[in-house]
C-alpha cells in the first residue's frame, strides 16, 4: 500500500494532520478532511515522532522489506511489508519502525 497522510509541523507548536494536498484544487474544490492544532508543543512533539516514523518507512528499500502473500478473502496475491498480518507469524519479519511513538 501507500501512505497518503499529510503531516505539517510549524515552529514546533502548530500541527496539521489530514488528507489535503497543498494546492489550489485540494484546498478549494476537493472535499478533504484534517485537524489543525495551534500552539501545542506537547502534541507537536508526539506528531514529530510520528512524522519521523513515516519518513523512515518511506526511505526503506522496498525490495528488502516486501514479499508476496496470499489474501484468503480476495483470493489474490498481494505485495505487502514483510511484517504484515497477511504473513504467518513464523514467517513474519520484525517491523523496522518503533512500536510506540
From TrEMBL:
Gene3D superfamilies: Endonuclease Chain A (3.30.870.10). PROSITE patterns: PLD (PS50035). Keywords: Hydrolase. Its EC number is 3.1.4.4. It comes from the Eukaryota. InterPro entries: Diverse_PLD-related (IPR050874), PLD-like_dom (IPR025202), PLipase_D/transphosphatidylase (IPR001736). GO terms for molecular function: phospholipase D activity. This is Phospholipase D.
Amino acid at each position: 500500500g501507500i501512505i497518503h497522510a499529510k503531516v505539517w509541523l510549524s515552529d514546533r507548536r502548530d500541527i496539521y494532520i489530514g488528507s489535503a494536498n497543498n494546492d489550489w484544487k485540494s484546498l478549494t474544490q476537493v472535499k478533504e478532511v484534517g485537524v489543525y492544532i495551534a500552539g501545542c508543543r506537547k502534541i507537536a512533539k508526539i506528531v514529530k515522532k510520528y512524522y519521523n516514523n513515516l519518513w523512515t518507512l518511506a526511505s526503506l528499500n522496498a525490495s528488502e522489506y516486501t514479499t508476496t502473500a496470499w489474501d484468503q478473502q480476495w483470493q489474490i496475491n498481494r505485495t505487502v511489508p514483510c511484517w504484515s498480518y497477511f504473513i504467518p507469524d513464523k514467517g513474519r519479519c520484525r517491523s523496522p519502525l518503533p512500536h510506540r511513538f
